[in-house]
Amino acid sequence: MKMRRRDFLIAVGAVAVMGVAAAVALQPRSSEVPRLQIRLGEDKCSRCGMIISRLEFAAGLLIQGERRWRVYDDIGCFAYDYNELTSSGKVVADAKVFDYHSKEELDAKTAYYVMADPRNLWTPMSYGVVVVKSRREAEELAGRVGGEVRDFWSLLSRFK
Predict the structure, then answer these.
(1) Cβ neighbours of residue 144 closer than 8 Å, sequence gap 6 or more
(2) Inter-residue contact 147 to 121 (CB < 8 Å)
């Protein structure tokens, strides 16, 4: 059976359209936020360069337009960088921290922060700040270590 030129061109066009559609479908959408992944014992803190070895003190920042998370070994490093980056005009697309007890990933803006003297609340860089997901847990921990509970914005004001 002989194919007419017109039918051949339609078939070639259909194959080309399907190929383009498949390529577009496989491309990551620019609006998708990459997932925060911290490789303990391998990744280095974006601020101080220390190897991140404990998730309960770690954090991550994703700057708008960037595809890689900036990762931190201590909430103090995270807070200082957050302030410096935003004051230089960068926009934070996402910010994550980890619960001190469960190591669950949390939204940095809704978490509770316990600040205490680092002699009573050890952290990798001795900032003395940890994260918990509930106010009740934060108040309980703050009472045990002689610290105070802060929200995200209050925490940032301490690290300017």
Answers:
(1) none
(2) yes
Q: Where are the domains of the chain?
A: 1-160
The pTM for the full model equals: 0.80
Mean pLDDT, residues 134-141 taken together:
98
Give CA–CA dist 38/77, Å, rounded. Answer: 15
pLDDT of residue 122: 97
